[in-house]
Design goal:
Length: about 400
């Protein structure tokens, strides 16, 4: 069995820590400056338009939500079914879920153009809108994630002067199965609703399909587990210790591999049913337009399917390969890349290809175009910096991972 050791001496780790934090703070500051520019000048500083109203930020939002919801779904299953061998990584999954959702909300705050009106869906109900349902899922699910995070926060030494808070945290922790059940329902509902947002639009043939809600759920589960395990392994390498047992690492890797295999099965059948065996005029025309004007075909087959799906599944389901940490980390990273590319392809494909029918543009056959501006890019980098900064401080100051050696063996 090959071992991958990137352990660093303590003094070098301390120096590298401050360099890392300083770099992230600089990137976060640059992203904040870009965000202020968006708030002042509006969405005109972006590459978005009436034809392509969703772009880089929505892709980042959907990817963050996918990894966050998938991670929490894994932890919820652990708590509900009391699978003790997976408990050492359950807290990390909750924390990844919180970071994923908070990152998504940052992206949404900029993308909606008028963040001061975020409260409108709470007051002006539109029960016929999938986006209205998603808004409520985001709010309620975020509350559940915060409640799950509070026990980790209250047990740190910084809250030792308020012993009652620790008691409250223990009470909340005892209710974890209840929160896990509520969070699991909200997580699955949220992911399926995101897929349905695209799947119910009959005017855009490339989106209109009942399989999108299920595929969004499966890809989110695979992506969330992959992200959580990848970060766990990486933290262990950087701190020169085995955070979870190697057998647990192999079991979770195999679970992620099967989740990706299930997703690939549905994904390929969805492609075959809508693009290979079937040739409906709307979908065929849209795909032909995408293939002639965008790299959609290449990103779909080479990045989303092959690199983001087939290769990780082979590595994680092969006993010899998944015991090699280099291959395992590569596979887990590729799953996250594949999920992100899926969200990009789904979002942009339906917007770039014109709808079958739209008032004022009937008969239009030209594809729309979209290219993120530098303002969008630096804001996205800033959000990624926030996520990495939050995880870095969480690992350092919260008891996210097991502290005793028994949990790792």
């Amino acid at each position: 069995m090959a071992r991958f050791d990137i352990s660093i001496p303590k003094e070098s780790r301390q120096r590298a820590w401050w360099i890392w934090i300083g770099t992230l703070l600089v990137l976060l500051s640059i992203g904040a400056m870009g965000a202020i520019r968006v708030f002042v000048k509006g969405l005109q500083v972006t590459g978005l338009s009436d034809q392509v109203p969703w772009g880089l930020w929505i892709t980042q939002d959907l990817s963050s939500i996918a990894t966050g919801a998938g991670a929490f779904t894994f932890s919820a299953v652990v708590y509900l079914f009391r699978i003790k061998k997976y408990q050492p990584i359950a807290r990390a999954a909750v924390f990844v879920g919180f970071i994923g959702y908070s990152s998504a909300m940052l992206a949404l705050a900029l993308d909606i153009g008028r963040p001061d009106r975020f409260w409108h869906p709470l007051v002006f109900w539109n029960v016929h809108s999938v986006l209205w349902e998603i808004t409520w899922c985001v709010i309620l699910y975020s509350i559940v994630l915060v409640l799950e995070l509070l026990p980790m926060l209250f047990e740190t030494k910084y809250f030792s002067r308020w012993p009652k808070l620790k008691t409250y945290g223990e009470t909340i922790h005892k209710a974890s199965p209840v929160f896990a059940a509520i969070g699991l329902v909200l997580s699955l509902l949220h992911q399926s609703s995101l897929g349905a947002t695209y799947g119910v639009l009959s005017g855009r043939a490339i989106w209109y399909k009942p399989s999108l809600p299920v595929m969004f759920i499966l890809s989110a589960v695979a992506g969330g587990i992959a992200m959580t395990l990848l970060l766990t392994i990486l933290v262990g390498k950087l701190n020169n210790r085995q955070i979870i047992s190697r057998q647990l690492q192999y079991d979770i890797s195999r679970f992620a591999g099967f989740a990706m295999l299930a997703y690939l099965y549905l994904k390929l059948w969805d492609w075959a049913a809508t693009s290979y065996y079937s040739h409906s005029p709307g979908a065929t025309q849209a795909l032909a337009l995408l293939q002639s004007t965008t790299p959609y075909t290449q990103t779909f087959w080479w990045i989303e399917i092959l690199l983001g799906g087939v290769v990780p599944a082979i590595i994680l389901l092969n006993p010899r390969l998944r015991r090699n940490d280099r291959y395992s980390m590569l596979a887990l990273g590729l799953i996250v890349v594949g999920v992100t590319m899926n969200r990009w392809n789904v979002t942009l494909s339906g917007l770039v290809a014109p709808p079958q029918w739209s008032p004022g543009v009937l008969g239009r056959v030209l594809a729309a175009s979209y290219l993120p501006t530098w303002n969008e890019i630096i804001v996205s980098i800033g959000i990624i910096a926030y996520a990495l900064l939050a995880f870095s401080f969480g690992v350092k100051y919260l008891q996210i991972f097991p502290q005793n050696e028994e949990a790792a063996h």
